[in-house]
Design brief:
427 residues, alpha/beta, four-stranded antiparallel β-sheet, elongated
Length: 427
């Protein structure tokens, strides 16, 4: 089950640079099928990556908040989300007025503890439910203890899986990136669900390889934003090879799929995704880029990179960024449906190519074994004949299928037959 992958990740404390994130990558490596080339990259803490700096590794030995002489209000050992992620060390006694700005709650989910992070801001705080907050005495003093450390090694880690089509890698813009961030601790839907779907897509593509000449597929599992920045900044020669990006985000809850388009929109992968979802998810929501939020597509699709990248998600959902985002939020049918849609988008995006004719005049189809009789189906026969009108090197197989109103794979079969006879070359 796809949910089993999410469950394994959910149980790990996956903060930005942490032992929990390292353990998650080891778990993913064990689940990757053999044809996928799996590697773990490490980036030194403190290193500059474009305009960003790699953050330190955060280690917590102990952290708690207690009423002076009374019970504990929050305890990292009880639940890691009761401490603001990346809190600096503290050991002090405070009045309620001093403490209150350091406490975080979720008014939308009053019984739940929110997840709050301050990755790039040296501060500290605790998280409690709104119900617990309302009951805290205002006339008492509180002791806050945070024994945390910021270490420079090991560095930030991220996982990369590379899968080539039949026959190996091809030249040109020949990779499609599938990305899901990995750094939200004890959040099942955000984003263990999406990583699990990404692993399932990898398994399927490995079991049924992409046809020869297709783009390779790069699976990227990383700390959000900074991980993708690190990967691309350290591998800038890779950027011209990237064709499209498909970012998976919060995708296992019980809601319709939402497609957040590329920036500024209108790219071929947008149209591929629209066509796939019209067929496989007719109730999907089609939205502009960054409609709800953005994840790693803002790096892939961002300034100086410019790889058209879209997001598939089931956001928004009520349990977002709270302790309520547990495994009960995930639905196996939703995960499997998301994998179906993501797989088909990736397959078409990777297998698409632009045909250019090598002939003049209409091809003598019957002479060259290319005739399709009308008895095989009028739509197929007509598409087989009309296809040659589009082999001018300015439309891809998908765009020809789009123009003629036929399925991509049916059109790919037609074009491949012309290509096998030498009448078409692939640009």
């Amino acid at each position: 089950m796809i949910k089993d992958i999410a469950a394994e990740l959910y149980a790990l404390p996956r903060s930005l640079v942490s032992d929990g994130l390292d353990a998650s990558l080891l778990a993913l490596g064990r689940r990757m099928p053999a044809p996928i080339q799996w590697s773990v990259e490490e980036h030194p803490c403190g290193a500059d990556r474009w305009t960003w700096k790699v953050p330190p590794r955060w280690v917590v030995d102990e952290a708690y908040l207690e009423i002076e002489g009374g019970p504990r209000v929050a305890d990292f050992k009880r639940h890691a989300l009761e401490l603001v992620a990346y809190s600096v060390p503290v050991d002090k006694t405070l009045t309620w007025e001093e403490l209150a700005p350091r406490l975080h709650t979720s008014k939308k989910r009053p019984k739940a503890v929110p997840w709050v992070f301050k990755y790039y801001e040296p501060t500290w705080g605790f998280c409690v439910s709104q119900e617990a907050y309302d009951k805290l005495p205002r006339d008492k003093r509180y002791r806050a203890v945070i024994r945390s450390r910021f270490e420079t090694a090991p560095g930030l880690t991220l996982g990369v899986g590379l899968l080539h089509p039949e026959g190996g890698t091809t030249p040109g813009p020949a990779e499609v990136v599938v990305s899901a961030h990995l750094c939200h601790p004890f959040q099942a839907n955000d984003n263990a669900s999406a990583v699990a779907v990404g692993v399932e897509v990898a398994r399927r593509l490995a079991a049924k390889p992409l046809p020869a000449g297709s783009a390779s597929v790069r699976f990227l599992f990383q700390p959000e934003t900074i991980g993708t920045v690190c990967h691309l900044a350290a591998n800038e020669a890779l950027i011209p090879r990237l064709r499209y990006g498909v970012v998976l985000e919060s995708i296992g809850n019980r809601d319709t799929l939402a497609l957040q388009h590329t920036w500024p929109g209108g790219s071929r992968v947008d149209r591929i995704a629209d066509a796939v979802l019209r067929r496989l998810a007719p109730d999907h929501r089609s939205l502009p880029a960054w409609h709800y939020f953005s994840a790693d597509e803002k790096v892939l699709n961002g300034p100086g990179v410019g790889v058209p990248s879209l997001m598939l998600t089931r956001a928004p959902y009520e349990e977002y960024h709270t302790t309520d985002d547990d495994l009960s939020v995930l639905d196996e049918e939703m995960l499997r449906h998301a994998a179906d849609c993501a797989e088909e988008i990736v397959r078409i995006a990777a297998a698409d190519y632009t045909p250019k004719r090598t002939f003049r005049g209409p091809v003598h189809l019957s002479r060259h074994g290319l005739w399709v009789p009308y008895e095989a189906g009028r739509e197929k026969a007509v598409a087989n004949q009309k296809a040659m009108l589009y082999f001018e090197g300015d439309k891809s197989v998908f765009e020809i299928a789009e123009a003629l109103g036929v399925d991509f794979w049916a059109m790919r079969e037609i074009v491949d037959r012309y290509r096998a006879k030498g009448f078409v070359e692939a640009l």
